[in-house]
Amino acid sequence: MKNYRFDIAYDGTRYYGWEHQPNVDTIQGKIENVLAVMCKSDVSAIEILAAGRTDAGVHAEDMTASVRLETDMTEKEIRDYCNNYLPEDISITNVKVAADRFHARYNASGKTYRYTIFDGEVKPVFDRRYYTPLDGQLDIEAMRKAAEYVKGERDFKSFCGNPKMKKSTVRIVDRLDITRKGGYVYITIHGTGFLQNMVRIISGTLIEIGQGKRKSEEMVSIIEAKDRQAAGYTAPAKGLCLVKVDYD
Asked: N or C end of the chain: smaller count of CB under 10 Å?
């Protein structure tokens, strides 16, 4: 039995997130079902572990996962077999034999997420599943000013969607860029790790600042409050995409 690293891209629109759940479609569940048939084993013997558990409706350009498999297939044959039987909205982009102790989640040193917004006059049709539409143009400079207060090592409890979270909510955000390209606005965030819904809540708060509903300086008191109620709304899932996972 060998340990494999999978690089995976998926459109999360019709899935209930990464982690398998009973009676609903998930990314993990779909991949495990295919691997079980490939290895001629019971699906309960297959467990593919991702670098993170994306929420329902969230996408990934480059998710990393690890899984132990008993197979004589080559890396390319595994990749091609999976892509032949997986639905068209999930793609295995690469398969490699990994070190025996490699773990996609525990060995990850950082993640990059991108949140996409469209605030132009005419909403695009063909990528409508991958952005959040807004009425009225956002104040990008106000959002950038607020973003500066987020960077660094902070207690992000105000941006945690799990009210029962008992572990530390301290995280490091070392990059938070806001860029515009035509009617598209991109919030790109990189950090060592993220809390449940953290990127979507930060994005929702920045959107409210861009809409003039909050001042940029309020970001300081929001962070200091350590209270979910102090922050903005949780931005819709469809605008969020995991771009890359880092490994040292």
From this structure: C
